[in-house]
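Dear colleague,

Following up on yesterday's call, I've attached the two folding results inline so they're easy to grep. Please treat them as preliminary; we haven't cross-checked anything against experimental data yet. The first protein's sequence and structure tokens come first.
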Amino acid sequence: MKALVISGGGSKGAFAGGLAEYLISVQKREYKLFIGSSTGSLLVPLLAIGKIDKLKAVFTSVTQSDIFSNCPFIIKKSNGIYKTSINHWGVLKMFIKGQKTFGESENLRKLIVNTITETDFARIQNLQHEVVVAVSNLSTMSVEYKDSKECSYHDFCDWIWASTSLVPFMSLVIKNNFEYADGGMGDIVPIQYAIHKGATEIDVIVLRNKGDLKHKDPARNALDLTGRVFDFMLKQIANDDLTIGRLEGQNKK
């Protein structure tokens, strides 16, 4: 069985969509299993039903306001370079409201519903393919894998939302009395799960900069430092996932 695994990677999702289009449309790769984590979870449902044009439209037009209902950042472009600072007022409002995160990403949930319609979901469920997204359960400190065939439409949209919610910057998703967050926090490149599901041939799209050893300027503030720490942790998790995947694959031969 062939599987396509797409990692997390934020805005790099547009690159993953283009590469997946090449694999499916040009290389004629026929996958029976699609697995996504974080950003990857936004991609795999539409890739499974061939809605590549819709993916292009979304990933080339999405803005911060499409994601955040309360953005913890202020992003400005100066001399062609994007600079990020803290939205102090927005973060303060979250503290006043007694929220657990610095920002809210309710708009992303709406974007998911508008992008993956009930008609799209019905097509996904009628396929012989499996479409799976990874989520991190912070209540049980474990990773869970949600199969579209075992979910209702709105539940699956919630799982995609949870898989893409990088806390504490985005919403903490409460579902079934559990707290859920970004799938990449536990399994950013879910190769091992693909092998567990019986995949014998796996194409993996990893959304990260290769060999990026550029010296970074000192962190400007606490939020900048927190973001940098998360970036570092996710890169190490990705390295571990790739190593484990290779070892699992070798053991299966």
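Below is the second protein, in the same order (sequence, then structure):
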Amino acid sequence: MKQKRSPWAWIPSLYFAEGVPYVAVMTISLIVYKRLGLSNTDITLYTSWLYLPWVIKPLWSPFVDMLKSKRWWILSMQLLVGAALAGVAFTIPADWWLQGTLAFFWLMAFSSATHDIAADGFYMLGLTQHEQTLFVGIRSTFYRIATIFSSGLLIGLAGALQVMTRSIRYSWSLVFYLMAGLFIALWLYHSWALPRPDEDHTKEQKNAAAIMEEFKNTLVTFFQKPQVWVGLCFMLFYRMPEGLLAKVSALFLVDSSSNGGLALSDGEYGLVQGTVGVIGLTLGGILGGIAASRDGLKYWLWPMVAAITLPDLVYVYLSYMPSTLLVINICVFIEQFGYGFGFSAYMLYLIYYSQGEHKTSHYALCTAFMALSMMIPGLFAGALQEAVGYRHFFLIVIAACSMTYIVTFFLKIDADFGKKAEK
């Protein structure tokens, strides 16, 4: 390695930089468009399409590996994300705000997905195997910190600026300019802090034909696995209730009471969903990982299915009963904790399905189906909600939970998978 830097100098900031644009595209955009007066139908339709870069990410990941170094891709994408954030900030006050912001959110989404590819690859090149194991928790922790910072503090800041400026557009524009400045600072810092691993420059270059042949073999072996159709149905439908709920629940929290929403301010939303909810999600995920590592995925599969579905009932309760901010926080914490615990089964199954030859490429394909499982329900979730109202929509979500149980029933999983090996 030509330049040795402590992993502490770049791992935390790199994964913080990975989390911020994803939250901006998937969460902050919802609140911005809601505040700017867009309908739930349009919001969920437009923002669900922004999942597409993560769906098709495996198609161009080989070319990221072939063209330029991963360090170059990281720095270039951070610069592009900064430009996209500045573009959103510039176009929010304009008359053509919808077309302009959507164009820059698309640029941000593709840049963020490409940054994910490069950062995850660079993590393996820039660290020894021992360091990779040591810092796996650190990288996920700082990704969660980025989530709290973006969906908690920044949305809360937008609410405070609205009180000061009396302008929704101006306040959100300032927040996005702040995020753009942050990414320029991250780009400058990483230009210095990122190491220069020899493997990132001297690796054997493959031509496009060789890459396409390798990708073809990856696809063929992926669809030749045992229980392939059961596995694909599980990947696509296990999270169907969450795919319907994710965007609409955020809109429900901030929608006016006359529309059946809870009418939270941006500051209150930042606390409820962006802070308390993220903490619940993180704790649930940690507990799910610990449980599965002790007794195996098969042992905990059905408790995890119950955890990811039954807590959705809190939104039925919130839509029918008047609730204080404390009650809303408790309900969102319960739902997100259950989701984090139940999502562990999904992620472990992706690892289980990807075992064998081409496991890295197969796992990338699995994550594409994971993104697709959220994208498809989200496309029509807003239209469905506006057609039936929040109360009936949340009842439909509960009914959709049956798909989670059905696709799980047909799975066949090795009873020892996930267990800690006995000495």
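For the second protein, one point worth flagging: The CA atoms of residues 92 and 169 lie 6 Å apart.

Best wishes,
A.L.
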